[in-house]
Amino acid sequence: xxxxxxxxxxxxxxxxxxxxIGGHLAGMIMPNIxxxxxxxxxxxxxxxxxxxxxxxxxxxxxPIIGTLLPVLIAYTGGRMVHGQRGAxxxxxxxxxxxxxxxxxxxxxxxxxxxxxALILKYVxxxxxxxxxxxxxxxxxxxxxxxxxxxxxxxxxxxxxxxVEAATTAAGNAVGWLISNNLLPVASVLIEPAKVLFLNNAIxxxxxxxxxxxxxxxxxxxILFMLESNPGPGLGLxxxxxxxxxxxxxxxxxxxxxxxFFGGIHEIYFPYVLMKPRLILAVIAGGAAGVFTFIATGxxxxxxxxxxxxxxxxxxxxxxGWLGSSLGIxxxxxxxxAVAAVLLGFGRGEKAExxxxxxxxxxxxxxxxxxxxxxxxxxxxxxxxxxxxxxxxTTKLTxxxxxxxxxxxxxxxxxKEA
Length: 417
Description:
The chain is mostly helical. The chain has 15 helices and no strands. It has a domain at 384-417. The radius of gyration is 32 Å and the shape is elongated. The two termini are 52 Å apart. One of its GO terms (molecular function) is protein-N(PI)-phosphohistidine-sugar phosphotransferase activity. InterPro entries: PTS_EIIC, PTS_EIIC_2, PTS_IIC_mtl, Sugar_PTS. It is found in: Cell membrane.
């Protein structure tokens, strides 16, 4: 499944290993992009700060991002490793991770889904030759149930707390950078954490409380702008639209609308997970945006929720629209430029398509032409040469046998030449 979204990787070096990991991540995430878009639309429309606030419909937002999307990711990852049986045990195992923490467990789903399927794959190999006839279904069902249940317990008691500890550590690190006036460097931690779906933990757990305290004293705070800037995501998606893999380009415009105007940044995270090196693009864009905010003295009076361009401008103090808009544009431009370079301006994909299509066509055309020419050249030489030779044998004369055999054989050959 990963091969549908990323080119095949050859080699055994560090770069090839990273590309393979990115391909497997893409295989788990990209088939479920439709579910992410559906969640983004529901969130942008029906949450209290959305376009059409609706308390009843907004109840779907939490279960979709907290349960459905992790289950889909784990299901897809398990299917990649061990087919339908792997998909089922992956979906079962991820429930332990989902219940074991309050944050959306996309990273945990990408770990435990394929891992559980791999364990079941080895269990099936072990039991396949040792199961007596008539007991196959019993053994298969119980082995899948036992593996899925055990991994769900491990996920709840092990993987969930580990991811929670990583979230807390990332928040503390961001707080330390802020307290030491290293705001542009904070993007080095904020952007990777966002891609791992820890954006809400960092924004609402660290940045927003510090920003509220600062805004109470000065009337505005730049801390509200560190995580919520829609510029880096917009630049990344624009680079994907122009230079990304062709199968993904049709989904990019909808993702751009949801991310930039709807404020749902999670919509672009799978695109980074598909090609992990693109994290450098959003880091560079985020740092450039923060530097621009500092240079222009920009700040917001409250946290923009969701992180839409409209929400951004709505909480910008009077006279600060230039700084806010300029920071978003600079972040988008830098992110786009770096992502375009990392994507090779689409040259890698074009070279791969040319390399896979042209040799086949040229070989096919050359082979068919050569066979046609050889057929045309041999038929006149063999047909007329053998028939008269048979007649001459029956008549027991040498004259008719040599005459037709030489003339028709040489004549078409001369014409052909």
